[in-house]
Amino acid sequence: MRAVVTRVTEARVTVDDEVVGEIAEQGLLVLLGISAADTDEQVPRMARKLHELRLLRDEESCASVNAPLLVVSQFTLYGDTRKGRRPSWTAAARPEHAEPLIDAVVTELRTRGATVETGRFGAMMRLHSVNDGPFTVLVEV
């Protein structure tokens, strides 16, 4: 499981000009990718890491200040560009494997008390965000 996490002051995701997920205050934008080798066992670790990661101002976390997260599925995080000019997607999970794991991370975050908005799995999404810093990290579990 791999996530690109960016501290934002606002972020929203739209599908066909409809806003499907939005945070309008400081929080985290999480682009979450699932590999073919990922399992349910990684879900609690990823959710805990995202919720408790001290990336917000003054080294706070979403858990400590009740900041929201916008989680967007992103299979392209497993694109391999080492050979040629066209990325290979063989490491990325198939949709039927990835979608339940993305949903499980979101559910686990909400169980922990996090405010979570999401994109729409498999849809062509437009993402708007205002980076804060900018401050972006890669998280892998």
Textual characterization of the structure:
The chain has three helices and six strands. Helix 1 (43-52) packs across helix 3 (95-111). The protein has 141 residues and is α/β, with parallel strands linked by helices.
Number of strands: 6
In terms of structural class, how would the helical and strand content be classed? Answer: alpha/beta
How far apart, in Å, are the first and last alpha carbons? 6 Å
Compute the CA-based radius of gyration: 15 Å
For the sheet with most strands, the description reads:
6 strands, mixed
The fraction of residues in strands falls at 35-45%
Element-by-element helix/strand order: EEEHHEHEE
The residue fraction in helices comes out at 10-25%
Mean pLDDT: 96
Number of helices: 3
User: Uncertain runs with pLDDT below 50, 5 residues or more?
Assistant: none
Broad shape: globular
